[in-house]
Design a protein that fits this description.
Blueprint: H1 3-11, H2 26-51, H3 59-79, H4 90-99, H5 102-119, H6 123-144, H7 147-154, H8 156-160
Helix pairs in contact: 2-3, 2-6, 3-5, 3-6, 5-6
């Protein structure tokens, strides 16, 4: 058993399948969870800082801060339910989110992160919601898959060629040499 397998078995969630169902690199999974967890804690603190804006009568800042705190709490419930074990049904919510495809999680995180920046475009809103947005972007990249898989899906000829140009080594294509292509007269 390699060190990576030992680390994965330690970090595995209860009830998780030992064999991965997707072809996402292990480091990207941990990057998504890490940015989601640490970013949510920072976003909660910055959201509370935004709420202090009510002292000077800035109501959009209060609403932005509350939205950011709730959004960050939802992200931390999904990414690290052990941090919220004092709240009922967090594990069930986390398991439900875990069964969803990556693009659902990416879209949810991106949508959750936009309203605080619109309501109060301050540095704390941009940075706090930006960390949640970054988590969504990471899950979006996980949903797209590996680069090799995308190249194979785009064109089998392009994926098998070492140059990526279908066996041609120069930058010319066969577009102009194809007799079936329409040419202006």
């Amino acid at each position: 058993m390699s060190f990576q397998d030992k680390l994965a078995s330690i970090m595995a969630r209860p009830g998780q399948d030992p064999v991965a169902k997707d072809d996402v690199p292990w480091w990207m999974k941990y990057l998504g969870r890490g940015v989601g967890t640490v970013g949510s804690v920072i976003a909660i603190l910055l959201g509370v800082w935004n709420c202090v804006g009510i002292l000077i009568g800035n109501v959009p800042s209060l609403i932005s801060g509350m939205w950011q705190v709730v959004a960050a709490f939802m992200v931390i419930c999904c990414e690290a339910p052990c941090c919220c074990m004092f709240v009922d049904h967090v594990q069930r919510f986390s398991d439900w989110v875990e069964r969803r495809p990556y693009w659902n999680r990416a879209l949810g995180y991106v949508i959750l992160s936009i309203p605080p920046v619109i309501l109060c475009p301050g540095l704390s809103s941009i940075f706090g919601s930006g960390l949640i947005f970054t988590t969504g972007v990471i899950y979006g990249m996980m949903a797209l898959g590996r680069k090799q898989d995308m190249a194979a899906a785009a064109s089998p000829q392009m994926a098998t060629s070492p140059t990526g140009l279908g066996g041609q080594s120069d930058h010319h294509t066969t577009l102009m040499e194809d007799p079936d292509v329409w040419r202006p007269t």
